[in-house]
């Protein structure tokens, strides 16, 4: 069957939407825990979300840098040892931050959750941000900024973003 790209497809709205049930558990310290049992996969994702984005920082880019450097070392492990431990168990750590929130995600096999979860806790509670890791991070981001400053889309976004603050938005109605 060949697609006819001149005739647009018909639009249909589903009768019902099905969402998996998310269980909410309130921990002893009053922190909500949301559990989504998505089936019988041998993989799990643990995501911890903090109100810790750029809005909560007094200095620009600190929240992003802290989140990016969480796994750069702890009181007991170097960045290399942390990476090796996650690799050994086939786990993966991902961090994200935006203006409102920061999150840390751990992807691991169910059978290794008992080994990788304490490492995640160590990263979150004992991070030391070694000077050499910070220097490397700064150098990499400086190089990235130099490259981005040569890209049209980056420069355009840099110019347009301030123009769209809530004070500058105009609505045109016909």
Number of helices: 5
Shape: extended
* Main sheet characteristics: 3 strands, antiparallel
Based on secondary structure, the structural category is alpha+beta
Q: What is the domain tally?
A: 2
Order of helices and strands: EEEHHEEHHH
Oligomer state equals single chain
The number of E-state strands comes to 5
Query: Can you say what the CATH homologous superfamily of the largest domain is?
Result: Metalloenzyme, LuxS/M16 peptidase-like
What is the radius of gyration? Answer: 22 Å
Can you tell me the CATH class of the largest domain?
A: Alpha Beta
Task: Describe, in plain words, how this protein is organized in 3D.
It is a single chain. The chain has 174 residues and is of the alpha+beta class. The chain has two domains: 22-129, 2-Layer Sandwich (Cytochrome Bc1 Complex, Chain A, domain 1); 130-165, no CATH class. The chain contains five helices and five strands; from the N terminus they run E-E-E-H-H-E-E-H-H-H. The chain has helices at residues 62-68, 79-88, 113-126, 131-148, 152-163, and strands at residues 22-26, 32-36, 43-50, 92-97, 102-109. A three-stranded antiparallel sheet has the order 3-5-4, covered by helices on one side. The longest helix is centred in the last third of the chain and has 18 residues, at 131-148. The two termini are 42 Å apart. The mean pLDDT is 88.
Which short descriptors sum up this protein?
single chain; 174 residues; alpha+beta; Cytochrome Bc1 Complex, Chain A, domain 1; 2 domains; 3-stranded antiparallel sheet; 35% helix
């Amino acid at each position: 069957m060949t697609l006819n790209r001149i005739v647009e497809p018909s639009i249909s709205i589903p009768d019902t939407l099905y969402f998996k049930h998310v269980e909410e558990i309130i921990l002893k310290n009053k922190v909500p825990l949301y559990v989504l049992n998505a089936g019988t996969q041998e993989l799990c994702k643990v995501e911890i979300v903090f109100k810790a984005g750029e809005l909560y920082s007094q200095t620009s880019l600190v929240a992003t840098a802290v989140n990016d450097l969480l796994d750069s070392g702890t009181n007991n492990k170097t960045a290399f040892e942390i990476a090796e431990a996650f690799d050994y168990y086939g786990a993966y750590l991902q961090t994200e931050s935006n203006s409102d929130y920061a999150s840390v995600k751990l992807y691991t096999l169910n059978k290794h959750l008992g080994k990788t979860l304490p490492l995640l806790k160590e990263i979150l509670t004992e991070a030391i941000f070694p000077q050499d890791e910070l220097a490397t991070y700064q150098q990499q981001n400086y190089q990235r900024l130099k490259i981005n400053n040569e890209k049209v889309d980056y420069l355009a976004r840099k110019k347009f973003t301030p123009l769209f603050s809530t004070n500058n938005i105009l609505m045109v109605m016909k």
